[in-house]
Amino acid sequence: MAANRDRIREMNRLWRAEHLERARQINRDSERRAAARRHRETEVRARGRERAKRWREVHPDRRREYQQRWVEENRAKVREYYNRYYEAHRDDVNARAAARRDADPDRTKQISKEWADRNKERRAELQRTRRSDPETYQSELEVNAAARRLKRSLSRAGLPPKRLHPTTAAERRVDEREADAYFNDLSRPEHLRQFTVFAESLTEHMLKNGARMREFAEAYVENRARIGLPTVPVENIVYARAVELVVEWMRRVDLLTSRDVAAAVRSTKAEVRRAERQQQFDRLVKTVVAQVQRNSARYVVDAEIENRARAHQGKPRASVESLVVQLAMEEVIERVPTSSLTIEDARTAARVARLRVSISDQARLNAGVDRIQRQPFG
């Protein structure tokens, strides 16, 4: 057979060439029989799976017993299967395990504690292995030393110890998922743009029209009170109307949420308070300086009288400029709005006013002091 292989191949080729239709029919019949055989085998396997499924449903205990016995008898195979599957699907296996731990963190913590109690020697060995790396060991020593130094420094300064909030791996994974969802949101740039434009427009509107808006709100509240409706805070009316106007002006606000609007209102309120505080501060300084310039002669006399009284009581003399500015501040502060200023702001305003008094004013103050000092006291 092997010696006549080429001759047989040539005879088959010649026969196929002479009987082409017959050869094709034979091929079709062969393929048809093979397809029928495969179909029968598929049906047999399907019937076998169905019988096995029904048997497992009827005999769950025997099925479990068989599986346990097979696993006990084939530990090496099971370990090999698991290792091979883990190598091929490492990320999926880790993700499913993390999801199971996150679903029941208390149970996960309990299992970890039980394992640590059962495997103290193993745990110590793992820690020794980790610290066997010189760089790892040195980094741990440096971290511990820095923590001790910080604790001693805080204790010497009379400050409480640093408060730490330990986070679990499950909490960190939740934070990472939320961060990924936030930064990978395709609508985020447009959302941020709408929020930025809305917040800036609201702030600009309130800085420009705040007084007029407040007058409108106060009239609205008074009208509600006249007709017997419940009272509403004026500030709520002011910002509700301001938000309504800004929303009407903007082209797109479809991505803004109630939290965005509340955040923009809080930011605007803080900016309005800061601007009002700065305005009152500047006005106070300007008024004090003008008051000093208009009444310098009188203030010099009062300042010298105050210094002579201090000397009579054994107290050191005070700077004439400081006393003059203090006297002007006491007169001005009663008729200048200062509702947004604190005591420290008033002191700062006095220092700024003293620095802004011109050189000619200071020369005039000094001349007045010299003239007063030449006069007898009392």
Number of helices: 16
Sheet bearing the most strands, described? none
What would you call the structural class?
Answer: mainly alpha
Sheet-strand content, in percent, reads under 5%
Low-confidence stretches: none
Q: What do the pLDDT scores average to?
A: 86
Q: How many β-strand stretches?
A: 0
Offer a few descriptive terms:
single chain, 378 residues, mainly alpha, 16 helices
Describe this structure in words.
The chain is mainly alpha-helical. Among the domains are: 118-175, no CATH class; 199-256, no CATH class; 278-373, no CATH class. The protein contains 16 helices and no strands. Helix 1 (5-18) packs across helix 2 (20-58), helix 12 (258-294) packs across helix 15 (343-356) and helix 14 packs across helix 15. The mean pLDDT is 86. Residues 93-137, 152-172 are annotated as: Disordered. Residues 93-134 have a biased composition (Basic and acidic residues).
